[in-house]
Design brief:
- The chain is of the alpha/beta class.
- The chain folds into two domains: 202 residues, 3-Layer(aba) Sandwich (Rossmann fold); 149 residues, Rossmann fold (3-Layer(aba) Sandwich), CATH 3.40.50.2300.
- Helix content is 37%, strand content 19%.
- The protein contains eleven helices and 16 strands.
- The strands form three sheets. The protein has an eight-stranded mixed sheet, sandwiched between helices. Strands 2-1-3-4-5 form a five-stranded parallel sheet. Strands 11-12-13 form a three-stranded antiparallel sheet, with no helix packed on it.
- Strand 11 and strand 12 form a beta hairpin.
- Helix 1 packs across helix 10.
- It is globular and about 75 Å long.
Length: 374
């Protein structure tokens, strides 16, 4: 038989030090995408193999935008027909104009800003700056909070979040007693928290990419103050390491992992059967959903070009999601670039006060008892 070249898909990772490999890539992302390929090949949904081309660079907030755009261009030059990434809003937004105007290869990004979306830029984010504050303000109200103080990261992401959070609080009658900008990198928080502490709000709410959460608990301990603590999807850092889980002990935040979702549980069963371990947290689920959408588009693209893949992404409708609460679906469309469908595509989870575990807390529709998989 004649040799057939594999189809190339790019993975653009812009978070981290940009050097070498990473456990998230080697233990989660690549195994998940390869499992999808194996299953689609076995089902005869893909008639060619897939080669994954990886670019890891140090983008914002600790690096710069240019390496991210350069990495994107290298993936296009390598012949990739679709790209998963970048991850970070402050990188995705600046390069989106270039992606749409020059490259003509679609990306599926998990960045949260809607300012990046366009003809070739699709979003499958862990929420967005326009939606997450609405959910978290409602969760705080369900918990009985009537006043909050806001810690927002001094960045594009933080300011987008802040604008929506103000409106969300006003709409449901949650009084904001103070707003403090904090650095987007790790820094001492005691002086910032003292400003919020002066008005003794029922809760504090953090909005931003996440590094601004570091040392908040330490600052609260120094003040001997224990308000309720909320964050948006920056909370998902708690699932990535014991260090982060301890850092976020007692916090409530948005996540994409819901043990009640049978699509997600079935995926974990197949992953464990294939690889021998079970990474029960949000990122494998997100990778599974993104990978299924990208590879379904490649399998159905006519012709097999960047534009063909873009058009095929627009045709995906009502795909069951492994992320979010039961019933969450995935879809894109001609003028639809955010892939989530359903009000509970994000759920609220809570880190226990001792930092030992993360449990269910609620959704936009109401509080949910802690859940244990059957």
């Amino acid at each position: 038989m004649r040799e057939v070249d594999p189809i190339r898909v790019g993975l653009l990772i812009d978070f981290g030090d940009g050097e070498g490999s990473s456990p998230m890539l080697e233990k989660i992302l690549l195994p998940t995408f390869r499992l999808i390929v194996e299953e689609m090949r076995a089902a005869k949904e893909l008639d060619r193999d897939i080669e994954f081309v990886v670019e890891q660079v140090k983008g914002l907030p600790e690096g710069a935008v240019k390496p991210v755009q350069d990495a994107f261009d290298r993936l296009v030059d390598a012949g990739c027909l679709a790209i998963f990434g970048p991850y970070v809003s402050e990188n995705a937004a600046p390069i989106s104009e270039h992606i749409n105007a020059v490259a003509k290869v679609p990306i599926v990004s998990i960045a949260g800003t809607e300012t990046m979306l366009g003809e070739y830029v699709f979003g499958l984010p862990a929420g967005s700056m326009e939606e997450e504050p609405i959910i978290m303000a409602q969760i705080a109200q369900y918990d009985g909070c009537r006043t909050i103080g806001i810690l927002y990261e001094d960045s594009l992401i933080g300011e987008e979040y802040l604008r929506t959070l103000r409106h969300a609080c006003q709409k449901i009658g949650l009084q904001v007693t103070g707003e403090i900008a904090v650095p987007q990198v790790e820094a001492d928080k005691v002086d910032d928290l003292k400003v919020l502490y002066a008005n003794r709000p029922d809760a504090i709410m953090h909005v931003g990419m996440g590094l601004g959460l570091l040392r908040v608990n330490a600052g609260l301990k120094e003040l001997a103050w224990s308000p309720r603590r909320y964050s948006t999807t920056a909370f998902e850092f708690a699932a990535t390491s014991e260090t982060w889980r301890k850092e976020l002990a007692g916090w409530i935040g948005l996540d994409q992992y819901d043990e009640r979702n049978t699509v997600g549980r079935d995926f974990f069963d197949r992953f464990e059967a294939r690889y021998g371990y079970r990474p029960n947290f949000f990122f494998p689920l997100l990778a599974n959903d993104a990978g299924r959408m990208i590879l379904t588009a490649i399998a159905t693209a006519r012709p097999l070009t960047g534009k063909g893949v873009k058009n095929a992404l627009e045709r995906i409708k009502m795909m069951p999601a492994s992320t979010g609460a039961p019933g969450t679906r995935l879809r894109f469309g001609k003028f639809i670039r955010n892939g989530w469908f359903g009000s509970e595509f994000l759920v609220a989870r809570r880190v226990l006060d001792d930092g030992s575990a993360i449990v269910m807390h609620g959704t936009l529709e109401g509080l949910v008892p802690s859940y244990v998989e059957p």
